[in-house]
Predict the 3D structure of the following.
Amino acid sequence: MRHPELVLAVLVILGASSPKDQKGSTDRLSITDRSGNALKLARFVRQQCVGAVTDLNRFEAILKASGWPAVRKQTANPSNQLSLDVWQLPYLELIRGQPVTGRVWTCSVAIDGRIAPSTGAAKAALSSFAGYSVSPSGEWAWSSSRGNRLHMTLGQGPNNGLLINIEDTQLPWWQTILG
């Protein structure tokens, strides 16, 4: 072989260029390193549930761009505030609720116990974007922007997993002025 380094370079480029493999590859969840999943899951929750939940088109575009393989299992009826949009992902279920009283949106991520990090690791990872130290109760409340108040809870999910729930409340105009 005349140029083994050229062949090696081509193989490396071809191996690294598959968009399907590269897209979202940093966020692959592990069954063997469950504690390593905490930050990956926190990033996913933040990108899907903070700021994007109020706009279905943006929510879906972010999910598609994330590279996480998602299959829509249920489509909400926009006129029914109790109906839900549901996506199935490997080891996860993503749920987006319709606005309750036109102002409160919900987003939930159910994490299968096979990949769920410990509650302590999940609390630490979620605290990193809530803006303050680890919540002993698994509950956080903060303002993400003027006019929005967020409330996040972490609890037990299905199959010994975890459930992360975020409520995004758009405050009335007078509350945004008064603080």
Observations:
- The chain has six helices and seven strands.
- Residues 48 and 62 are 7 Å apart (CA to CA).
